[in-house]
Amino acid sequence: MKKIFCVFLSVIALASFAQSKSVGSDSIKVEKYIINIDTINISNKSMYAHTDIFFIPKKENLCFIPIDLLKLNVDSIFLNSTKITSWTYNDTLLNIESPTPLSMADTSHLKIFYHGHPQTDPSDMGGFYFQSPFAYSIGIGIDANPHTFGRCWFPCIDNFTDKAFYEFKILTDTTQMAVCNGTLIDSSFNSALNKKFWHWKLNAKIPTYLASVAVAPYVCYTDTFNGIKNNIPINIYTIASLYPNISGTFENLKKMLNSYEDKFGPYEWERVGFVGVPFIYGAMEHATNIAFPNIAINGGKTFESVVYHELSHNWFGNLVTCATAEEMWINEGWASFCEFITSETLYGKTAMEENVRNTLLSVLQKAHLDDGGFYPVGNVPHNITYGTTVYRKGALVVYTLRNYMGDSIFFPAVKAYLDSLKFKNASISQLQNILSHHSGIDLSSFFNDWVLTEGFPHFDVDSMKSIPNGSNFTTTVFLRQRLYGRTSFSNNNRVELTFLDENGNSCSRTAFFSGEFDTNTFDLPFNPTIVFVDKDEKIADAVIGYNKIIKTTGSNVFSNASTEMVVSSISDSMILKIEMHKVSPDPVKSNPNIYKISNSRYWRISGIIPDDSQYELKFNYNKTSPFFDADLISTNTSHDSLILLYRKSPAYDWEITPFKKLGNYSTGKLISTNGKTGEYTLGIGEPNQSKAEDFNTKSALEIYPNPSVEKIYIDNINTECSIINILDINGKLVLSKKISSGQNTTHFNVEKLNSGIFILHEIDGNGNIISQSKFAVEK
Predict the structure, then answer these.
(1) Alpha-carbon torsion (186, 187, 191, 193), positive or negative
(2) CATH 2.40.160.20 fits 702-777, yes or no
């Protein structure tokens, strides 16, 4: 399932509790469902139906058959053509007593007649919906436990592992059409009932959550995909008003089918199908019948990632399904990774890399906030099954796995995994074992450290040294691992190091290391002056980096790294790498002028830059959630004491570097006007060290005397001002006075205040800061 709107995430911030499974899954194995819907009353939001269930007992001499069914009225039950009179139903579980014990050697047949009002999930994210002229199912429930939600409209064994064949026999009004999984077998007119009859049959086994029906006055767009195995029909069903938008919305459908087949193996389903529904929260990957939001069928590419996320589920989730909800990464993390594949296929490697950066920044900022903490992507609690960690961080983990293994090994191994378990279920351990077996790479450390451990590692080189060795140089690098949102270090890491000399010559080597500190030694064909760690951003660790060759003056924005370089003079090309590191920088060793250093991030500017180059470096600060500086800029006045720190390398201590500030108490930039390579971070020091005034804080106020000993006088008060507050340098309110309408002057007694810098705020009637000024008290 692909989510569209952020409101979707708010429903998952619930208390964690254990995943449930269908009680009946231990008793019977369903082979086939035939779902018969005799009446769908859209205005009354009700249905009359019966379902045939063909099953095999899992226990010899089975006497009781548990069936999941949610808040529908059971009319009658037949078992092997015998009417059953002994059964119980509590609106959740239907427990049917067999007149005679059932044998594991026989296939039995249940026929259950029922009616009522099918339910939606309490989150409104899943279930059965009636919205004239539509009636349709969404197969999962975000709050439901278990999440599989077939039971809201037909009796079933409702879990991820009970896969069965399906047929659908639906009666509709003559103006309506029923669209279900599989192939349309019959669409005839029932003259006796004055209704249309629709018969669909799916020739592959699926779990209950992938079964679907959608009823509306549909028209069908048809095409054909020439797949590896077969020519496969494409059917896209929409209402007539949206039909002209289909070709534009799904323009790249066949191109992406070709890409997915090339990378993951053949499309194994009998039809490529989408059906438009008025579901506003996302799309749902029902097998051969993807429920796709009408608002996304707009003729453009706005929702392209949704189209191809859902399409990829035909491999990840539908073909091979997670064994448990805790392992939803197998479905959704891999489908989200396919959004990177979409960018790469349609727009090239650079577009994919930017998509990865966007995702990494979002996850570093928000995943732990969205999901209520740092979690691994595997074995997640129930409340974050469909959370940011599983989807977005999950995609980054697969992206890192791809590069850890290499394309020539990764994609064939994934094909082997999908082929060996097609139409079955997979656990994370099975996925790991198959990929390891096929590739010959021991992936136990990777899965432990990336799939089953929360947070992120962070890889870096603290220093290196080279000594001549004939015509080569023996170079030792000192590697360091830090942590973001986790407490254990990763092992058996593979990190590509790119070495450059002063002439721009380069070569790359792979470092293998474990733990917090390690060393690797390489023989290089030149004496390196610099090393780039993971130059091509193959690892989604707690670093966001950019590589760029700059040849001209002008601005270069590195948005996901919160950095800008403005080049004013350049004589030769710059080979540049800019990185934002989302870990705590090293502490200050000894500098009493630095009161506090950021515990959140630092930047590194490195590369081969001509000595006569001149450039500014602009580093963004932002105290608003989910950004990075709230702990450092803890109050509205902390920004006055914000300083820019610099060190040449980890061998040096932090120092305050000259800077100017452009911004206000919440957001802005610290600007190093004389940029240089090295590391930068933010800190707190003596106030007002910036060489530029904040914007949006200038005031017409006159404060005198300044400095003051006993009393300050204030003139030219803003006409909108209702309160004047005075705060100390730590943001603590020390004095306050109400201002009457039209009042232009006032004064404060400050003789009881300690010596120091104080902040004066004019506040309007809505509590907003109109202006900010400073004054000093001296004793």
Answers:
(1) positive
(2) no
| Host H or E run for residue 482 | strand 472-484
- The pLDDT of residue 15 is 30
Taking the CA of residue 338 as centre, how many other CA atoms within 13 Å lie in the half-sphere pointing to its CB? 32
Q: Name every residue whose Cβ is closer than 8 Å to that of residue 21 and which is 6 or more positions away in sequence.
A: 146, 159, 324
How far apart CA 179 and CA 387 sit, in angstroms, is 30
Sign of CA dihedral 345, 346, 351, 354: negative
**For residue 109, what are the CA distances in angstroms to 30, 31, 153, 391, 604?**
10, 10, 19, 39, 68
Answer whether CATH 2.60.40.1840 is correct for domain 456-541: yes
Is residue 445 pLDDT above 90, yes or no?
yes
> What is the rounded average pLDDT for all residues in the chain?
93
- Cα–Cα distance, 169 to 111 (Å, whole number): 14
Q: Can you give the pLDDT at residue 699?
A: 58
Q: Is the pLDDT of residue 80 over 50?
A: yes
Pick the CATH number of 320-454 from 1.10.390.10, 3.90.70.10, 3.40.190.10, 1.10.260.40: 1.10.390.10
669 token code pair: 């930039």
End-to-end CA distance of the chain: 66
Asked whether 645 and 597 are in contact (CB, 8 A), the reply is yes
User: Which of 4, 733, 665 lies closest to 305, judged by CA?
Assistant: 4
Q: Is 489 helix (H, G, I), strand (E, B) or coil?
A: coil
Sign of the Cα torsion 132, 281, 428, 511 reads: positive
| Residues 671 and 660 sit within 8 Å (Cβ to Cβ) | yes
Q: Which residues of 383-411 are buried (b: 16+ CB within 10 A; e: fewer)?
A: bbbbbbbbbbbbbbbbbbbbbbbeeebbb
Confidence of residue 720 (pLDDT cuts 50, 70, 90): confident
Domain 542-696 CATH class label? mainly beta
Cβ atoms 510, 494 nearer than 8 A:
yes
Q: Which tokens is 138 given?
A: 């969404």
Distance CA 404, CA 422 (A): 25
pLDDT tens, position by position, 562-574 = 999 999 999 999 9
* Identical fold between 24-212 and 702-777: yes
Does residue 87 sit in helix, strand or coil?
Answer: strand
Is the pTM higher than 0.70? The answer reads yes
User: pLDDT tens for residues 276-288?
Assistant: 999 989 999 999 9
